[in-house]
Design goal:
By secondary structure, this protein is an alpha/beta fold. It contains eight helices and twelve strands. The strands form three sheets. It has a five-stranded parallel sheet, sandwiched between helices. A four-stranded antiparallel sheet has the order 6-7-8-9, with no helix packed on it. A three-stranded antiparallel sheet has the order 10-12-11. The longest helix is centred in the last third of the chain and has 17 residues, at 192-208. The model has no long low-confidence stretch (mean pLDDT 86).
């Protein structure tokens, strides 16, 4: 199977752009729509493997849209994005034809796991995540499959958050990645608490990479980061 095709319906512009751009960087083919009226034509043109659908949309709610999708494409997985946590809302989503849901705020990693699970349920094949191949970072090799950062001097075990932050920095290497984009992609919101957490992880990753002076994480105050890799 080649790139998984994701039809993503979200009317919130800032969130939609972050999610779309991050999924594309991680190896997915994404079509993002903000208008529910354009979804049905997009289904025929794009032929997605998975539909990711926000419940709260202008003009048409996600439940109604899902029922229409389900009437036309009986087996297409539909993952609802919802800020609603009541059991009745979740039941309504499944009754409308949804196959899974993700609660807002969410991390990109959770969304990817849900997408890949739906593809596995459809095909019976669990493929590796788009970024599972080893990645060279200067003298280091990042091993997403084993959560390790290797160098001639040895191996460093990474936490899940270490891996998320480092792989997003690498996906945006040698160009600016906005602080807010990092926060939204990894934590799902840019609260003060999460912002302080990000500072901790940036310091940790700098420490991991300190043996290679050609690899740098430059903080652009009030803006974001520049991850320099030769």
């Amino acid at each position: 199977m080649g790139k998984a095709r994701i039809l993503y319906i979200e009317d919130e512009a800032s969130l939609g752009k972050i999610v779309r751009d991050t999924l594309v960087k991680l190896g997915y083919e994404v079509r993002w729509e903000t208008d529910g009226a354009k979804v049905i034509p997009a289904l025929d043109e794009f032929r997605p493997d998975v539909c990711v659908l926000d419940i709260m949309l202008p003009n048409i709610d996600g439940y109604s849209l899902c029922r229409t999708i389900r009437g036309m494409y009986r087996t297409l997985p539909v993952i609802f994005l919802t800020a609603k946590a009541e059991t009745t809302d979740l039941v309504a989503g499944f009754e409308a034809g949804g196959t899974d849901y993700v609660k807002k705020p969410f991390s990109i990693e959770e969304l990817i796991a849900r997408i890949e699970n739906q593809i596995y349920l459809m095909t019976g094949h669990r493929k590796a995540l788009p970024d599972s191949e080893p990645v060279g970072i200067g003298k280091f090799t990042l091993e997403p499959g084993t959560y390790e950062l290797r160098s001639p001097e040895g191996s460093i075990s990474l936490s899940n958050r270490d891996m998320q932050v480092l792989r997003l920095l690498h996906a945006n290497r040698n160009r600016v990645i906005l602080r807010k984009d990092l926060l939204m992609s990894v934590w799902g919101d840019d609260s003060y608490f999460n912002s302080r957490n990000l500072d901790v992880y940036i310091r940790k990753i700098r420490g991991y990479l300190r043996d290679d002076q050609s690899v740098k994480i430059i903080t652009l105050k009030g803006n974001g980061y520049l991850f320099i890799v030769p």
